[in-house]
Amino acid sequence: MCFELPLRQGPRPETTECAPHEQVSQNSSAEIHALFKQKAFALPFVERCRSGISVPGAEALVLPRPHACGPREAFMIGREFAHVHPAYDGSSHMMLPLPAIEELIAKGWGEQHPMASAGYIPANAVMAFAPRDEAEVDVMIKILTTSWGFARGKLANPAPIQIHD
């Protein structure tokens, strides 16, 4: 899998350490948040739904059954592979293959979900930080497209992931 990100500029945003896991600084402007959602929900086969696992107002990216061919760890709940938090936050949670998570964290674009760190949800659940400008929207779409490909069965994990049901 080829997944290389540019280095994210500036300090890490502040996030909460528990559920709900939210980004509390460096949030997107309303315009940037709307642009990110427009591009995110334009991915082929993606259905826009209310999230089955996130805060009120979060919008889920869900694949129809015929396109949800990825492994169990590619999904948060049902066929939801990612969700975008409301505008006050702007970050996204998604499931990524393990090598992508290493790159995401190393380059400053996100962090592991604290419930994943604690072993309550799969280790490949991450928060991708809210984009701050149009260039960062493009990086976020690249990250989200990797999650989408994983959920569609186009990318594999190099090792099994423990699922906690």
UniProtKB/TrEMBL annotation:
Residues in Luciferase domain copies: 78-145
The UniProt record lists the keyword DNA repair: no
Domain of life: Bacteria
Keywords assigned: Plasmid
Keyword Flavoprotein: no
Protein name: Luciferase domain-containing protein
Originating organism: Roseovarius indicus
